[in-house]
Amino acid sequence: MNRMATHKQDEFLLETGRTRTRPPPLFKVLLLNDDFTPMDFVIVVLQKFFSMDRERATRIMLQVHREGSGVCGVFPKDVAATKVEQVVSFARQHQHPLACVMEEH
């Protein structure tokens, strides 16, 4: 009878080990450079959707301009996807081809 109790206890401990959860994967949201979207519009996007002050938004905008892309932030997948959709939609409403993408961090 003691054997069964010990056996059940071992199973419980094994089960506990198997149910450990990992933190969700994070995704970088990036803006991509193009030759048509005004720099001031990119700054507005960074302030509006990523809560950046003007100085930080300007630094990221310059990185996008000079290096071809810039990281706006790192978020869980659903938040990153929402940010991408919001930025692209806002850009299209203002007739700019600004590209916003996400990639795993």
Structure, explained:
The protein is of the alpha+beta class. Helices cover 57% and strands 20% of the residues. It has 4 helices and 3 strands, in the order αβααβαβ. It has a 3-stranded antiparallel beta sheet with strand order 2-1-3. It is elongated, with a radius of gyration of 22 Å. It starts with a helix and ends with a strand.
Q: Which SSEs are present, and which pair or pack?
A:
Layout: H1 2-18, E1 26-32, H2 39-50, H3 54-67, E2 69-76, H4 77-93, E3 99-104
Antiparallel strand pairs: 1-2, 1-3
Helix pairs in contact: 2-3
Question: Characteristics of this structure?
Answer:
3 strands; three-stranded antiparallel sheet; alpha+beta; single chain; 105 residues
Number of helices: 4
Give the termini separation: 51 Å
Q: List segments where confidence is low: pLDDT < 50 over at least 5 consecutive residues.
A: none
Strand order of the largest sheet: 2-1-3
Shape: elongated
Task: Give the mean pLDDT.
Answer: 89
Question: Strand content of the residues, in percent?
Answer: 15-25%
Quick take:
With 105 residues, the chain is an alpha+beta fold.
